[in-house]
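thought: fold this chain, then report.
action: predict
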Amino acid sequence: MSGSRLAFMTLMGVIMSLNPTGPGRSQEDIWAEPRQQMLLSVANDVERNSHVLGRLRLSPEVARALALTPRHEFVPSEYRHRSYENCALPIGQGQTISQPTIVALMTDLLQVGPEATVLEVGTGSGYQAAILAEVAGQVHSIEIVPELARSARKRLARLGINNVRIHEGDGYMGLPDLAPFDGIMVTAEAARVPGPLLEQLKPGARLVIPVGPAAYTQQLTVWTRDEAGLFHEEKLLPVRFVPLVRKGEF
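observation:
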């Protein structure tokens, strides 16, 4: 059995334990089949890009988070029928909800556990924050567009995700008052790595960020801070993200 198929079967076990069958099936069940297709597509992508993770499949914790998080709740109504396509989708304000494969890879690359406090830059719809909430103890997420921050806050509260705190502000500067963090993820393209974010990493922690010019392909990059306080860069995968918006640019 291929690695992707094994990972897919593991995810299916999680899903089958969640969804009732028969006459009393819930509204949630209408998404079961497209979700299964999305998970299989992600598993195939991860296997093809195994050099990025150094293994054939996602960690069990990240795989479970992807299976449990209802992506259709984070997609605008006009695109909801496409919720489980393995692609980015518009969410308004010139922003997107990222491709599930990229969400999964970035979460896995962060390498955080249930005791971790994580910073996300670029809340958007709140989908990535919801995935992080399944693998980390506390998630702080910064969104510069007030409308997106407010809607994401309400959405996460409605879904009962209570270990995410959304902040309105310039994500480039991070949250120095709450630093240092066990991991930082940037879900928008930066022309260069923000120095304030690097300085807010704990020793041993990682910053996962797409770096490069907005008009071209960027590189998904991992920066690690070692115990001596030095930073190490690893470029992993070509990606395309919307630009990181700064104060005064929206």
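thought: worth noting. The chain has eight helices and nine strands.
final: tokens above.
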